[in-house]
Structure formats: C-alpha cells, structure tokens
Amino acid sequence: MRPALRITVILVSTVVWLAAPASAQTDPPAAAAPASAPQDKDKEQSAAASTDFETGELNFQVSARPDVASSRFQEYRDVVNGVSLPAFRLFGSENNVRFDLRGQNVKQLDERYTGFIKTDFFAISADYNSIAHRIGNDGRTMLVQQSPGVWRMSPTLQQTFQNIWESTTNANRVFTTFVAPLFTPSIVDGSNVDVQVVRERTDIVVDLARDQPFSAKVNYRREQRHGSGGLSSNYISYENETPSVTEYLTQDVGFDGSVIRPWGSVHAGLHYNWFIDQVPSLVFDNPFRATDALSATVGTGAAATGVGGPAAGRMINPPSNEAYLSAIGTTLKLAHHTRITADVNLGRLSQNEPFFPYMTNTAVVTPVLAAQTSSLPAQSLNGKMNTTSVVLAITSRPTEPLHLALRFRRYDLDNQTPRITFPGYASWDRTWNVGARINVPYGYTNSRLDASADYDVGKLVTLEGAYRRTTIDRTFRETEQTVENSVNAALIMHVADMANLRAMYERGSRDYSGLDLGRSEDASFGVPPTGLSANALGRDGSLRFDQSRRDSDRAGIIFDISPGSMTSFAFTYLHNKDTYNDTVYGLQNSSYDTYTGEVTLTPGEQWNVSAYYTHEKNGSAQVNNGTSNFPVIDNFTTLLNDSVDTAGVTGVVRLAPKATLNLGGRYQNLVGTADFTTQANSTYQNARASIAGVQNIPNADNARIVRLDASVDCVLRPKVTLTLGAWYEDYKFSDVDSVGLQNIYPGAFFLALNDGSYTATVGYVRLTYRW
Amino acid sequence: MRPLSNRRITRMLMAAAMLAWAAALTAAAGSGQASAARAGVAVAVSNAPQASPPGAWSASDCSVCHDKAVNANFQHSAHGRNDQSCATCHKNVSEHFKSKSAGESGGPTPSLKALTVKQVNDTCLTCHEKGARANWHGGMHDRRDTGCISCHSIHSFKSPRAQLKTVHDAETCFTCHKQIRAKYQRTSHHPVREGKMECSACHNPHDSTQSKMIDAATVNDKCYQCHTEKRGPFLWEHAPVRENCLTCHDPHGSNHPRLTVAMQPYLCQRCHANSGHPGTLYDKNNAVGGPLVAGAPPSGVTTTQTIVSARILSRGCPNCHNQIHGSNSPSGVVFGR
Prior knowledge:
By secondary structure, chain A is mainly beta.
C-alpha cells in the first residue's frame, strides 16, 4: 500500500475512531408507546436525544487511464491512475453539537475538504480547496529555472551565440538559412517545461452568535498560488517566451455583523485584504548577448553587425498591494412588502512597492543610468485609490397585483495616485526612448438608476416594464461622460402548473459628451506628439467603442411546458446586438444569438432521461487601418464569427431492485472564422501579391469535445455499494495561432506547450461504504 | 524562507478542529447522559395516528403518513430537527389531520404546491430574510416569479450546501440559464464543471441591489477577490481594464485563451484600431504555416507584415505587451514589462 494511501486510511480511521464513543452514546433507551401525546417538556427533552445521529460515507476507487500528453486532459482535475479516495463524509449531531466533515479527492492536487462544527452558541466552518491550473506541457527552452523566477542558460553558449550573431551582417541573418539552424539544436537539447499553477485556498468562518437576534462572524482567508500561471516574454532582442513566476500569497481577515429586528436589519463589515508577490520579478538570460551592450537595433541597415541588449532581461511582476474594505447598510421592513435598503461600501486600495530600474542593460548610461534606481524620479508609486459605493433601493407591493422597485447605485473610483514624470523609458532593453512620459491615474464614477413596475393581470399574466439610466463620468479618457438610457418590457404567463412563458425586449441607446480625442494618450506625454498618426484615433467622430454612441437590442423568450408529471419540454431563445455608431475605426458591432431545446422524461422510478441541444452564434465586425495617416483605401474590415453546437443527455435506468445504470454524454463543436475585406490596390493587397493575397482564416479557435459516461451502481449490502464505470473523452482543437506552433520563428522563441487535442478512456471500480 | 504551505497549515487547522470537536462531544456527552437519565423518556414513533392531535406537529407525528417526506436526509437537516414543527411552514395541518382521520377526500391541504410562488416565498422569508437574502424583494428572481422551491428542496435536497435540488448549484442555475450551460463547456473556463467553483462564488441569486446579482459593488471588485494581483494600483494603468474586466473577458467561458471575448490580435484591435502595427492586417499568412521569409529579413516594425508574426501567434499582442492589466515598471508605458 503506497505511503500516501496508508496515511489516508490512518487519518480517516482516526476520525472514525473518534466518532465511535459518540455513536455509542446516541442509541436511545428502549421506548414504551405513550398512551397520549407527550407533554411539551418531556417532548423537548426526548426530542433533544432523538436528534442525535451519526452517518458517514467512505469511497475507495481504483481507476485506470492512459498517459495523455496534453495538459488539457487534467485541467483543474487529477485523473488518477491507481488507487484513490474520491470522497468521504462524517456527519452527525450529539447533544446539539452538529458536525459535518467532507473530503474530496484526498491527497490529490485537486483535493478539497469542507466542514463545520455547530453548537447552540457558536459555529466554525472551514473550506480548503486546491485547484491545479495546467497551462501546458512539454515546452522546450534553452533556459533552465535555477530558482522561482530565475531562468539561465550556459554562459559559454550565450557568448557563442553573441559572437556568431555579431560576425554576421544583417543581410545574411535570413531566418531559414541562418537563424533557425543556429538556435534549433540548442532548443532541442534544452529543458522540458510543464507550466502549471496550483491555487490553495483556505476559508475559515467563526460564527460567534448562533441563533441570536444578531450575527457576528469573523472570517479568515489564506490563498497561496505556486508555480507559473502563464507565459511571459520580453522583447530584448528576440521575443523570448518564458514561464511566468506565480508565487502569490493573498490573505483576508474580516468581521461582519448584523442586528436583526422585526423592523429590519442593520449590518456592517470590515475587511483587510493584502496581497504579497513573493517573487516580484522574472529574470531570464538573453540568448543573443553574454554582456550588456548598447548598439544599433537588430536589423537596422544591411551592413549592421551589432546587436543591442542586456545579458539578461527582466519582467516586473504585479506589485504587492493591500485593501481596506468596509460596508454598512440597513434594510427597513414596512407594510405591503415594502423594503427600503441603503448600503454604503468604502474601499482604500494602495500599493507602494519599490520600483525596479528602467532596464537591466548597464550599457545605457545616457541620458540616465538606466539600470540603477538612483536615476528614477521616485523610488515607489505610493499609489492610492478610494472607492465609494452607495446603493439606495425601495421595493414595494402596494396592492397585491402591483410590484414597484426603484434602485439607485453610484460607484466612484477616486484615483489619488500621484503623477510622476519620467524623462524617458526603455521600450526594449537596448535603447532609450527620449521624451518625458507621465503616469495617468485614471478614475471614474458610474451612476445607475433602475425603475421597474410589474402588474399581475389575473392569475395567468404578469406585465413588466422597466427603465434604466447609466451615467459614467471619466477622467483621462476621450469622453468626459457617457449616458445610456434603456427601456425594457416583459410578459410572463403561467398556465396552472403546466406551462410558463417569459418574453422580453430591451432597447438601449448611449451617447457621449465632452469629447477630446487626444485627452487620454496625450495625458501620458510630457510633450504630446503631433501629426495625424500621432493621434491614435485620427479622425473627428472616431471614438473607441467603449465610449462611442451605441444602440443595443436585447430580446428573449423562455417557454416550458409540462403536459403531465412525467414529461417536460423547454425552449429558450436569446438575442443580443450592439451597434457602435460613429466609430470610424475599431469595433463596429457585435451580436450573440442562442436557442436551446430541452426535454425531460420521468415516466416512473424505473427510468428517466433528459436531453438538450443549444446553438449559439457569435459575431463581430471591426474596421482597422495601420498605415501612415490612414488613407481610406487602406481601411479593411475583420469579421469574426463563432458557431457553436452543444448537446447533452443523461439517463438513469433501474436494471434491478439493487442495480442502477447511469448514462451521460455531452458534445460541443465550435467553428470559428476570421474573414477580411480589403480594397483593390490597398497597401495590404499589394504587399501580399506574391503570396496568394489576403487570406481568410477558416479555423480560428475550432474545438470539439465529446464526453461519454456510463456506470452501474450495485447495492451489495445495505451499507455497501459497488460501482463499475467508465468515461470516454475526445477533445479536438484546431487553432491557427497555436496548433503546430514551433519553438522558433522570425523574431520569437516560443515554448510551444502542449494543451491541445487528446483522446482518453478511463475505467474505474468504486466501493462506497455508508453507515 | 518559504512560508508554511497551505496544505500543512490546513491539516493543522483541521486537526485542531477535530480536537475541539472531540472535546465538545466529550463535554456534551457528560451532560447529555445526565439529561437523558433525568428525562427517562425516549421518543417512540407510533405506528398509528394519535387519538387526539398534538399541539405542535413534529416530523415524527407527520411521518406516520408522510414517511417519504420525512426521510433520513430531512431528519438530519436543520429543518428536520424535532424542535422545528412541520406547522411552522405547512398551514392547516390540524384541519388536514382531522379531515383525513374522518376519511374525507379533498379537504385543506398543507402542501406548499397549493400556494402561489409569492406565498411560498413569504413562508421561507419568515425565517430566512437576512444575510444574503435580506434584499430578495424586488430582485429579478422575485419579479420573475422564481420561488424558493424552484431551486431549493426541504425534503429531497441533493447538494451538500444550501439544500438545492441538484448536486451542484450550476445544474440548478442551468435550469433557466441554458445559454450559460453551453458557455461553461468551452475550452477556456472557470473550474465550475470540475466542481472547484460554483456560480454562487460570483453571484448572489437572492440579491436585488447589484447588476446581474454580482456579489460585490462592481464586476472588477468581484474579480479582484481571486485575481488580487490585478487590483493595483499600478504606475501605468490600462483604462478599460480598470473600468470593467468584461470589456475583454467573458467569465462564463470562451474558446479563446484567458476567457477573452475575441481571438488575438483582433481583440486589442477593437480599440487600437489604427496607427502602426496595432492596426495592421494579420491574416492566415501571418499565422502558423505562413511564409517564414519575405524578400528581405524583417527590419523592425512593419505595417504590412507579410510573414509569420509573433503578433498573431500564441498569445498575440501580450507576447510583447505582457503586463496588459497594468505595469509597475518605470519602462512599462506600453505594458511591455
């Protein structure tokens, strides 16, 4: 028996052993049937004894699965090959002390334990959850991780590459004949990398006022993330993809209380939340340079031989930060189901981590010593943001058929971070960009008013109308304010318990004011650049879609019918469309349509089956132009479309009084396309004349998954159930961005992780013991 | 020195909890034995209705006829404790008993199924209109006649928490929110279908005060509870990120990496539509399988981009603009470090 399993059995046995004395005490003495109803006091005492119970469940499983290379197969889960303890539970009550302890996937990377102890006067509940996020397997790199966030390569190899690169003129640095042959052998001989991050979260809540007319709870959360939560890269000479470093610790401690009275309640809470980035930067060697140098950028001029850059690059991780969060509010209960609610939430977010230098390249010494913090105009940000949220709401049912609701919400983000002027910056770690840049402490206020009324017309029909107004005031954006008004109407019909229909339509319209197209980006320059191309938006009336005029349409219908107790049908249709007016460049419109049909058959206890089908269609159109001064002839349109078909079925069949067959399946097929429309003689068409022209993408994010489950539960004894089961999963992924990705391309090194297609069948035998 | 791992701390806490529980049991057992001895009476479930109806109807009284409703699951629940009377929620219990004892058909029924949705909800809210449910009235579920027993079951629940009709709360939500069921099966998703997270991690289905019933003042405040590293403040802010995470992400599921609403680089091109390489055309020629060399080696930034490009491969724009949620580097003006 493996050590891990041995420890698990001992742990569970210990818990069971601890429970044994309690269960010996819970058996009631022999009872005599009372001649009449028991008196209240005797009934109360006997009731206390009769609520004592203990129950539990243990699951042991043996499973077999193939080796699967793709990380997608074990994304967020461990699929065990061997013995495991999928679940256990201990649940009971002893003289008004209730306890419940559950465990899932014991000793696996996706294990979870939850539990509580509740007495008449206090309670403790806890939840430990481990989540493994597997990003990709079998990446290749020339670098080796020496410690979290430090990736190095052989200094000899680094120097060799530098010597070869510097002795080759730019004209001869052809990718296929020079670059790839130079670096590929080292990548092949390099290290294998699996990228994953594990999130371990523990929540503990102590309830100090059980069954009281007030509540008082103390909360504590601790979350540790280990590993690498993604990929990082920095264009030091080539873009060099490296696993990011994710060593994050987040903790939260807080108190929440409320007073509950017949007239309503008052609640308040205070939380302190702090995030620590335990490895604040990622450092990685530069394959092109063994020593820091300042020279011409790569590829400038046919005769250039130099290459600029540092011996090692650095990526700055998200800085540690903290937040104080407080809340206070009240709800008043008045006649006619009238509720008046007022809530205020205040937050203080801050961050003051030391700055890193502009770059790692010690060769950049003018106009500043770019690799030293002494050159910085400030040593840290001292960033502060205050958030204020106010919610006022009144709902009422003044007469039985009429229901009114009025709600006002206001959220204000007041960014008090000081503005710092930097004399320039390093865009890549080899050159200094002259020109002062200033940080922009963006803030906004979002105010929203909702008013709704619904009226019951008889017992069958409810009519609903609603109005919504959303106002957003922004600082340092192109517009000072956007205002959106929406109206909504809905019809709800009930036909006894047999059928329900809900139909709704919503129309919204957004406008803006205080337009200054240069306000946002100009705010980050000491001296804003001039010229048409310097202004990212170019033309009057052109505005980023999140602030532009917009018309929105929403419609939906939900219908379900149950002609008998054994059958039900449901149909849903939803339509969303946003059209962005006056947006010359960028997103023009986006839409989402979906319909679902579902049927459930429950003829009796012998069998039941449920099945559904959903179709979704997602689309968007945008206009772009990346050439100088944006001549209209170079405008091009990108049409993105996703079409998704999803289906699922579940069924349960009682084979015998003590044997049940469980079947399940789900299927999803997504086809994504990207189509481009360009104009004749545009720069883009002309540039592609020799390579078959502009080409659409027929397989942008195509994916198909098929999952089939089957299991048979056999009740061997009243306390013992044996389950035989298997599941099949087939995942196909075709994506023009990543499927077939190589480790080296012009201008970039990639890890080329495997998170793609797989097929697997898993079989298992599970024994469940209940008491 | 690395701090204690979460696993070790948790096991210590669980062990402490078990010791506390054992101590509580031991202490309670002592008093429990004494009170049982004083009572000298045990509960007996008679096999026939009482000669006269008792004043307060307990589960054991009603189980004579309604044994399926008064099952072990219910009896072990908070509702099923014998200090809770069935008549707390079910009305006309005495009249129902009299009618059935007299052999009458029809008669008053205590079943909640005979009540309107609002009447059922008012019954439950008598005790449960507090905490997360304090603002039920006027919410979207309330207005759309979603009853408490649409999602919850008192007698036949299956979930480990909140007494839902399904094992996982997502299955309950998908009863109505069917398009979300399709979305959560996408390639890039929160770990809901693996059972590591629930819909209620982000939504409070009993709320009426926040948009989409998000359990926080804003969407971003909710996202920061798990993605704390995105909270900032940062030296260089990315304004649409600060305003709303949903500008770029679909939290219910997406086929694009990182739950983005569109593939790269077209997502970024929704805003960065013109000027230089952000607004350039990236087609199939620039993706995997495209040409590797043009007429000459690539020379710096090209606006026409006719060969395979890192601006569409793998992560697209964030390949270089890595700190896209905000940068704290003095050189992070364009979120490149």
